[in-house]
Amino acid sequence: MRQFALGLCGLILIAGCSTTTPCATSNCACSGETVTPPANAAAEPDDCPAIDDQGMVALMSRKTDELFKAKKITPMTDLIKQLSRKQCALTLPAPSKTPMTPEAIYANRAQSTLLVGGFYKCKHCPKWHVNPASGFAITESTFVTNYHVVNNPSDKAIAVMTRAGKVFPVMEVLAASEADDLAILRVDTGKDKLTPAPLLAANPPVGSEVTCISHPKGRLFSLTHGLVSRFFQTSNRIKGKKTAKTIMMTVTADYAAGSSGGPIFGPNGNIAGVVSSTYSAYYSMKKGIARDLQMVFKQTIPVSQIHKLIKK
What we know:
- By secondary structure, this protein is mainly beta.
- The protein has helices spanning 53-69, 76-81, 102-109, 147-150, 303-307; strands at 3-5, 10-14, 113-121, 128-137, 142-145, 157-161, 167-177, 182-187, 209-214, 222-234, 237-238, 241-242, 246-251, 263-265, 271-286, 289-302.
């Protein structure tokens, strides 16, 4: 996880991929024993309510390795070059008008939520692994995640995995914004299809309910619930220069490292935003050490910024 000091008594963390010591984590298949995915690892949610985190990540690592060796996946160097693309033309599903409880959102939208894995060479063993982040399908062959998930030269490629355990190679960046920390990418699904989630037409109001499905610290397809707490303007520093101000949305639904790019759903199961970062507010800073954590703000990208990447 990358971190940046933000003035007095505050710390911002990118909510993305974190396997700085892969073999010491529960996600790594080289932690001393071989993890064999169970026979039902690829079952639908109703058939497999208890998720095998290690089994799914090990299965994704193996399938991504097969795609990489067969040269059926785009190298990360090419994807990073394509991050300069500003917009793309897509046909999106219509927003849902049916109110959904968090239970219904999980039942209907977990299949739209993706495990996004950067494929990298382990420094602690001779194997290759995937570094889990999050994303979500918006058409039958495209998905959204964070810019910083893709802009990672240490990875060799990216693949995605569905809740049903199907693994697809990422082939192309269609549009991206570094200032908004967003990227839209295309996958090769073969004869299969992703299950898209519809986008809200406009940002939700403060106080509206939101639900997040993501993979915090490798706890795959975790659901949290909360409210939109505020919108604010901010600017990022890119290559030493401040970007134009952009809009972000703070929510109270919880998430952590591994959640980057995950969907924030509104009360009708439409995409309201995208997980991006957290900001930890401490009471004091003594000798360079932040003390007495008071709040952790969950900073997301509102849906309006996704719409800017899609040609009308």
